[in-house]
Amino acid sequence: MNGTPRLRSAFPTTPRTDPRRRTFNNNERSALGSPPSPFPERPSPIIRPVKTPGERAGAPTPLIPTEIVDVPSQRFYVFGFYIALTAWRLYNSYNVENDLDSTWLFLKWVGIDAAFFVALPAFKIPWLEFSFPTAFTLWLLHAIANAFLMYKIPIPFLTWLGALVKVAYDRELSISEHRVKPGDILHNSSIILGKQIIHILPEGSAILNPEKRAFCIDASRPSVELPIQINQTTPISIELQRYDLETEEVETITISSKQARQLKTQADSGHHKSDTNTPRTLHYPVSKAGLYQLQRVIDTTKLEVRKRSFDTAVVHCPLASISTQSEDRCTGELSNVALRVTGVPPFKVKYSKTVNHKQFSSIVQNVLPHVDLDLVSSDEASAVVLDPRRPHMGWTKSTTESFEINESLHQNGSHSYTIEEVEDGLGNKVVYNGSKSKDFHAPRVQSLTVHNRPRVTLGGLNSDRVLRVREGNAIPLPISIQHVDTLHPSDWPLNVKYSFVSDGEGEAVHSENHVHEMADRRSMPLISQPGKYSLDSVDSQFCRGEVVEPSSCLLHNPPKPGLSMESEDIFDKCAGNPIGMYVNFDFTGTPPFKVRYTISHRGTDFPKVQEFSGMRGQMELRERAAGSYIYTIHEIEDQVYGSVSLKDQNLVLKQDIKPPASAIFHGDNRAVKACLGSPVSIPVRLAGQGPWDLDYELVHAGKRKKHHIHSEDELCMIELPPFAEGGSYSVVLSGVQDKSRCRTTLQEERKIEVRQEQPRAAFGDIDGKRSILALDGRSVKLPLRLNGFAPWAVRLQNLDDGSDSFEQIFRDANAEISVDRPGTYEIVSIHDSCPGVVDSKANKFQVSWLPRPTLSIKDPAIGTEGSKGFRKAAVCQGDESVLALGLTGSPPFHLKYQQKFEPIKGPAAISNKPVTLAGSSAQVNLDTSKAGEYSYVFSELGDARYSPDKKGFAPIVLWQQVYPLPSAKFSQAGKTYGYCKYDPTFTNSAEAETENIPITFTGTPPFSVEIAIIHHGVSTRPEIIRQKDIATRSYSWPLSRATLDLGTHTVSIRSVKDALGCESILDSDPSAVRIHVSSPPAIIPLESQEHYCVGEHVSFSLSGQAPFDVFYTFQNRERKARVSGNEFRRLAESPGEFVITGVSDSAMGNNKCRARKDIRKVIHPYPTVEIGKGKTVISDIHEGGEVDILFTFTGTPPFEFTYTRTENLRKGTGKARVLETRHDTSDEFSKMIRASDEGIYEVVSIKDRFCSYTKPSHKAAGNGGGGLMGGQKKLLTY
After folding, report:
1. pTM above 0.85?
2. Where is coiled-coil annotated (predicted)?
């Protein structure tokens, strides 16, 4: 009892000092003369709430932590595992074959169930932690179920179901022909009514705030309820005193009699009416703060109740708030948040810290009041005099305290401080709920935004920290912001301060300071003046930043690029002609340089670019073709200025080129692929002054052959004759000579690869032949044999159908070609990359088709109908009909035909039927199961070679008519004709002695019918009657009654035949009728007694043909009951005279056989008894008093009754014990007795002259006589 209830996740309780005590003795004074302590002791009668059972550290936790699988899921998985075991158990039971399997499976499942119920508590899952007796009981029930399942013992489900239905719907027919519950009659609570309760009043008491709880009020809780506990009393007036906490004024509060009754009624609502000994707690609402005392309580006896009063303080609930001067901070600064608490000290405040929406911790802070030691001196304190009649008020005084939360902020983002709860010194706690944002107890939150400090540097600089910019241009100062993503959008724009110092070339050195506002990371200041730039500082909107190295750079304007050049000619050593020149460049500017120039030759300009990495460079200009060349230099480009035009310098070079003779192969250097027997041409490009003489050699197999060619053109062709053999050849250019007659030696070579053989094509063979027989319409693959290199292009032609040749591409040397038409196929030609030859001995292939199967009808009794139709003779429904067929082909044959049935009434039905036939002659059974027109369309035919299809097969159609079978039935199917054999109401006329039974026919008249009559009990052999020439479909068959004796006779139709010759033979006739010949019925009572009590059964035995109609009168009203069995049994639910007047059976119906009777029975009611006119009378007396108890009876005197006195017990405390049982008699309808002992007086049994009744709760104890259901006793005294 030393702490506030907390969640498991809450911080541990703060260590407490000794609990504060207070002595409630108004006659003692407190010693104010003692030296004051800094924190004076505050006496309080408040007892702190205790921890709930769920918070005890010893509570068991599941074996599997709930962080992995929560408790409901664990229960679900256990339930699913149990369902799987049950399914497996049922599967094993279904597959049991012998007793050995049964024994083994029974032992197996007993072990599995034992393991399951032993292991389950080890998981410690709530609701599944069974004790050992519970687990053993469950295992025993499962073992019994295993025995039933594995040994296949039949379970009496129907018996159990009948018992359950009997319990849920236990109703019987009464004499008044209504269904009633026997229990409602036998256990009638209105027979014995009323009870007398005698209380001996004890002495009462009243206590204010017995649990010493703390109370507080605020805007969300404007009032509280003060508990006043009363015991053994009913107050009519209550007085309270309230001492104001501020002014100490006294207010007297009086609770009136009406309000006290309302409070007492509310307190009794939670208790049973019989529970009068349990103390009641009255909850009186108050809405003012103050110190309350219970002054006086008066009960219904106008006497003052003994009271006990604890000083109960109702204060204002503690209030906490949190605030700060500014909500923006920089990283590294302190939080500086102020927390303010108002209420009764000392306080306990719990608050949490959240950083970027993630809760870091919850802190509990104890706040002690500030005590001014100089406020009251010891002399002044000793002079104070307390009133002993007034309570001490100091421990309820309210104060306001505050403290600051100062902690270093190192992480940027949102920092929130939330007050979760506050508790005052009396134990009043206020929890600020985060889910109620608009409530008075909404969370107190103070949020801070912590901003990162910006860090800047100069980025993108080279090692010398120099920015080179062309003169007059401006570039951004390369300011780089480190970790820019950590800056909040509200931190922008940034204020950057930088300084500039000029380089002092040609003028005095001066310096400048600048401030630039950066809206984003790309918003940098522009600089253009040469000199030194340095970053001084950076500030965001909230924080001062940091400048890191490198923080300074130099801006330099280099000179513009330019060049000067010199040229030197290059001469041929043989002819002395110029063949090119060297050009030397001297550059100014910033390397590297690019020189752009054009070469003009024969009116065409060719732009060129040459790169130089240093300040000096050389370029060699050589041309292969002779002629005049002009070199014009246009632009120069360096690293800083870009392209600079040089057209104003007129840098032009001219030269006439006369190059020496030379020759090269035209095109790429890959080897030339050549076909065997084909010529080859190789192009050669010549240079120099024409005409030219070219020498070359052809090299093959170690042999060289020299050749010479003369050309007037720069591009000439070397023509090589067809090659007779394959292999590798080389063409080598050895020398060339032009107009100057200076010979140039050459080393140019070109390879020629000549194929070793030509491609070849031929047909392969199938089973040693180049011919094949195939199915009509099937694709046939013809094998090919190809030599050469893939892919091959083969051209073929079908010589028999006169079609054009066709060409296909093949990539396999053993390829196959698919054909779908018969004929002789010939290979016309073949080629790959080279033309080829066709093998004349294997260039043809023969393809032929196998013949298809055929179908014909061989039945001579079939007539033709149309060009492809046939009709077969009509038959009766159900007669056999066969169609003979002839087939040609390769058996077995597969025939498909469509059967269409058009009934006499209703829609047509179509069905497709496949048939397999083994020989060339076959028969097909035609359908005659239903009457109507049948048509058969044979549409597809196949054999062992051809699958059934419609190709090449003409459909055959066959028709046949099937006549319907006639039918006959009795118009009133199942009817029972009955009459009395010796009934005097019948006359001797022929019409009266004849029974006309109507029969209905279908078919074509006239009809012939055969009728059988079975005489039950006489002979099992039927009597046959034949009736012919019935011209109509409705016929009344006359049957003489004189031919039938007593008993039951069954009349049925055996066969019927119509004019078409179709006959129906009936094995059994569902429309058969019965004729019952009987004598009048009889009724006999099963009991000899004449007098009955309400709740007993009246039974009679019936003889005759069921069902019976029993006629009787009850309570002067005529009634009729229908009885389907041979016993008439009814429950007597009310008193009266019961007379049987007659009975009839169903031999003839309409009550024609009725017996007159006069059987009388008398039913008597239960006697009744009442105490206090049937009500519960409560009498409160003091010790020694007496109470009159009045008993009132109904019934037939004399009366005998038994009553008991039981102890008064509160509800739920157990079963009341019977203290006394007494037996008494009365010849009158009322009786008075006197009682003075405490207890409950009630009658348990009553008996009059005829009947008796005992309460069901006292039957087992033998209270009352025997009788029906143990609760009645019939007295046979008249």
Report:
1. no
2. none
